[in-house]
């Protein structure tokens, strides 16, 4: 594995944290979340040859779940961690290639890239939503158990 990509994802996540005005005390945690999400994605696609979309779904779910745990620990909103932590997974390069091929009138490749970009974006959204839904279900079950006691 190339550790330079992990450092880059850490600093990119922190840079987006600065852009989004996250509190200073959450910057390192946010950077680590982004780096670990990217490391998981690289590990799944490189080591186990997972499809990019499925690996993105798993990594986004991981980022969202860890973001929720850290949000409770730091007593901050989940979005402080999840928005900047998800940045390394965003398919910006694919979106650029999509537009470049459309401009060059190479529509068959452009459609291929556009489809992959949309699927990866959907996987990110689904991973974030799925983690949130599971968290709410677990919270409701905890509240129900507390009321019964």
TrEMBL record:
Native species: Tepidibacillus decaturensis
Family label: Belongs to the ThrE exporter (TC 2.A.79) family.
The protein, known as: Threonine/Serine exporter ThrE domain-containing protein
GO cellular component: plasma membrane
Pfam families, per the entry: ThrE_2 (PF12821)
Major location category of this protein: membrane
Membrane topology: Multi-pass membrane protein
Threonine/Serine exporter ThrE domain segment(s): 7-133
Segments passing through the bilayer: 6-22, 27-46, 52-71, 78-96, 116-138
Xref: InterPro entries: ThrE_2, ThrE_Dicarb/AminoAcid_Exp
Keyword tags: Cell inner membrane, Cell membrane, Membrane, Transmembrane, Transmembrane helix
Locations listed in the record: Cell membrane
The organism's place on the tree of life at top rank: Bacteria
GO biological process: succinate transport
């Amino acid at each position: 594995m190339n550790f330079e990509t992990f450092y880059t994802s850490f600093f990119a996540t922190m840079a987006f944290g600065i852009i989004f005005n996250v509190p200073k005390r959450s910057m390192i945690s946010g950077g680590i979340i982004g780096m670990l999400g990217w490391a998981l994605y690289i590990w799944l696609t490189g080591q186990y040859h997972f499809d990019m979309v499925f690996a993105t779904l798993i990594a986004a779910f991981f980022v969202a779940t860890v973001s929720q745990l850290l949000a409770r620990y730091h007593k901050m909103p989940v979005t402080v961690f999840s928005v900047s932590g998800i940045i390394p997974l965003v398919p910006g390069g694919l979106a650029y290639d999509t537009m470049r091929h459309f401009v060059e009138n190479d529509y068959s490749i452009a459609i291929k890239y556009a489809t992959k970009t949309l699927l990866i974006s959907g996987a990110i959204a689904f991973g974030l939503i799925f983690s949130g839904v599971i968290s709410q279900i677990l919270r409701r079950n905890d509240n129900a158990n507390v009321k019964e006691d």
